[in-house]
Design goal:
- This protein has 311 residues and is mainly α.
């Protein structure tokens, strides 16, 4: 057993408790590299350097796409398009012609492809089993089921930093991403003992997994990374991230909720209303609550069968 205290500092004591069945992580040929990921992502300056690189690449891509614009015009135009006020009318602004659309996605995908990752997966509250399968397939994911403070691209940013600064030029660096799905340890937080994965330690190191606060975990915690992404230190990224957050908030505010009776029925799937609503909007073009009961059952069973819900 380990406790949150064992995770303190860069002593990495926790790694001596991580196992795959009876095999200790210390016996893995990837052990030292996984240690490096842990130690560096827990370092504030390392993470900030990585995010600064993303900001720099966003700026370079914007300049390339807008060759005729001056720097001041370009910055003003980008911030105007991604103004939070516009997100309040996101259905309209999404259709607006925009030379700068997809800049962050393009930057992240370029690094992912260069380091052996598969195609991007789109997750809506994916079940634990499906989530682990995603990691084992080396697929980065846009986490639509994440909270606004977590962000949907935050784990991709974490792995951009890891690949760019620890494994630059290593074509199969995605193997470290995959490994996070295989190793576990039993962690005691207060009176509770839970099984956590190496993924939780390296990428989701938070109060609901390891018991750590975001301030302590630094880049191992997605909420800490998200706080940096929307800080004024990175004006282009923060404009984009704040816009996306407002857009999602408006989207959720405009969606009808399920009746209490229907919600109780679908808690059998371990699903949140948001998960079902987003899937209904994507596949049916309307909210989950507006579907007939027959259509609701059919969609929920389909999502459960394919690993999107805990059926």
């Amino acid at each position: 057993m380990v406790t949150p205290a064992d995770l303190d500092g860069h002593g990495l004591a926790v790694f001596h408790h991580v196992k795959q069945r009876s095999k200790p992580l210390t016996a893995s040929p990837l052990y030292s590299d996984l240690q490096r990921i842990y130690a560096n992502m827990a370092d504030e300056n390392f993470v900030k350097t990585g995010i600064a690189k993303v900001e720099e690449l966003v700026w370079k891509e914007l300049k390339w796409r807008n060759k005729s614009a001056s720097d001041d015009e370009l910055k003003a135009g980008f911030k105007s398009y991604y103004a939070p006020a516009k997100a309040q009318h996101f259905d309209v602004s999404r259709k607006e012609a925009n030379t700068n659309k997809g800049v962050l996605t393009e930057i992240l995908e370029a690094v992912e492809k260069a380091h052996g990752f598969g195609p991007v997966s789109y997750a809506w509250g994916t079940s634990g089993k499906a989530f682990l399968a995603n990691l084992k397939a080396r697929r980065p994911f846009k986490d639509y089921g994440a909270s606004k403070d977590h962000g949907d691209n935050t784990h991709r940013v974490q792995w951009f930093i890891i690949c760019r600064y620890l494994f630059d030029g290593v074509a199969d660096a995605a193997k470290f991403y995959e490994e996070t799905a295989y190793w576990t340890c039993d962690l005691t937080v207060g009176m509770e003992t839970r099984t956590i994965y190496l993924w939780d330690m390296l990428c989701d190191n938070a109060s609901n997994t390891t018991g750590w606060t975001k301030t302590k975990a630094k880049g191992l915690n997605p909420i800490y990374v998200m706080d940096l992404l929307r800080s004024d230190d990175y004006p282009l990224l923060s404009a984009f991230v704040r816009y996306r957050r407002m857009k999602d908030m408006m989207s959720d505010a405009n969606k009808p909720t399920l009746t209490e009776k229907r919600f109780r029925k679908y808690t059998e799937y371990g699903a949140m209303v948001k998960t079902l609503d987003r899937a209904a909007l994507r596949f049916k073009g309307q909210s989950f609550a507006s579907l007939s009961e027959k259509e609701q059952d059919k969609l929920a069973k389909f999502l459960g069968k394919h690993g999107f819900l805990d059926a």
